[in-house]
């Protein structure tokens, strides 16, 4: 059964069954998901952060992947690329030959890759903005759409972002993110809840 | 027949036949390829530049697509997105239902989308670099791999880039690109040929 055929509400029992059948791998918050093989990974639950290594700067964040969506590549084993569990996550790995054998799976993954490409292109457009304030607002707007859930005060992001996570994604320093977050909080556009999750109010 | 099943060397006669059979659309250098429908476009010949519109900054370049590779989306009609022929180009449009009906096509396009995603993620990593010199070197290295052909003096890019094209892609000004290009030329790392095509010598 394909992951996206599944109902949106996933029961604990089903997860257990999935784990037992070894379809799903669990990674705990902060763990690196080893991308030793090529292929695609589909997120079943949680949020995965994708980083790329740059010689001159170390790791930069290139995106986040939320439930049902995919990451990875069928074309090569991209060694400059690394995936970190931002929360506890369940992921399913599809090998290239498994995808080739199964047309229904290929079509589903085609849609998912297409979605991921749209998101990646959105990230290129955000990181290309000259002003750090514009990049930050662009990023928060994207994250709101990606992993925001309505709460009384606004839209809460399901994963917890540090100022450093945000800085690594929009090519600035942690200090600058802290300053711009402060400005947004003063304007009533942003707030942190008791779990230090962002609540976006615009 | 799928485009990538074709031999690399495309004869003029075949192109004519293809145009007559209305598989391929020709766009002249500088023309916008209208992305009125969703679906994927495969480049048969030439180079396509992809731009995205940002409210605060106008258009930013998000990538380039070279022969056999694809652009577009099966998931939505992305209105913030525009494709410009950087050279005369032939492209083939695949509608989502055409892709769904044809498993072989779906698998081929899955690989191509995967390749395009790798390139897009590479662009995110490049645009995320803090120093403009690093962004420019990263971009030239990527373009060399994408559309470089060996010549006596180094590697020549098949499409002609203006300083503005480059500036729009790496989030800087035309003036800065001109300055950094000057530095690279002085160091013997870069040169323009008589057609003003870049020759990369590193």
UniProtKB/TrEMBL annotation, chains A, B:
The keyword DNA-binding applies. Residues 130-202 form the HTH crp-type domain. GO terms for molecular function: DNA binding. Keywords: DNA-binding, Transcription, Transcription regulation. InterPro entries: cNMP-bd_dom_sf, HTH_CRP, RmlC-like_jellyroll, WH-like_DNA-bd_sf, WH_DNA-bd_sf. SMART domains: HTH_CRP (SM00419). SUPFAM superfamilies: cAMP-binding domain-like, Winged helix' DNA-binding domain. GO terms for biological process: regulation of DNA-templated transcription. This is cAMP-binding protein.
